[in-house]
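Appendix B. Worked example

We walk through a single record from start to finish. Start with the input: the chain for DUF3097 domain-containing protein, Streptomyces marokkonensis, length 273.
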Amino acid sequence: MRQYSADLTPPWKKPQPVPEVPADPGLVVEEPGTGFCGAVTGCEAGTVTLEDRFGKRRVFPMEPRGFLLEGRVVTLIRPPSGSSRSSGPVRPARTASGSVAVPGARARVARAGRIYVEGRHDAELVEKVWGDDLRVEGVVVEYLGGVDDLPSIVDDFAPGPDARLGVLVDHLVPGSKEWRIAQAVTGEHALVVGHPYIDIWEAVKPSSLGIAEWPRVPRGQDWKTGVCRALGWPPENTGAVWQAILARVGSYKDLEPELLGSVERLIDHVTVP
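Next comes the structure step. The output line below is what the pipeline stores for this chain.
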């Protein structure tokens, strides 16, 4: 007598098998129920610990089909005992900004939102420290060349819910010209933040350059030229001096906190869902 299966579910409706992936330290996955994305830092007692790009950690149960890896559903399993990569919790690799690195991540298609900075030096510094994060988030950085035309630039950009604009301004202190312009253009979808330094050079910590402090340049003198003269650097080629300064910046640790906080605010603003 022929035996029939009691399972009458059509094949196309049955759950498809998913890959089992060892929860090796540094593996970046997403828990779809919460949207939390981070790198594996530990695995024990049927749970896995993830750390996101801001250093926040959460523990999740290692349930079947419980995670997304590069957009695909996977089941995380405990790494094989004795594996050289599972000898204990490790801290995931970091980008220059201090975020958790995403190994093998491809650049996201550029968002409609943008971050504007004042000049080329500002853009190069932001790229060096936050470039990996910006590519993952699909954020493009452009430079203005100055803030005087910012109101018309914001009007032309027409910020909206799906096209947020963030602007980083040098020397943004209360009462300054830059401050008044920023107040005039800031709105729900346009955020202008800045730092108190006369030029982006000054946002690099003096200790990272081997100097005691940035020189004070008398008002009315070109700041970059005055700095170069005071420190014995070639004042006739500030572009070359900047490249030497930029080469000394290895990570966020070489920058002043006032700049770090402003750039992080801008990235959060333009990437909000």
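Two observations about the output. Helices lie at 120-137, 150-157, 177-185, 206-209, 223-231, 238-247, 257-271. The two ends are 60 Å apart (CA to CA).
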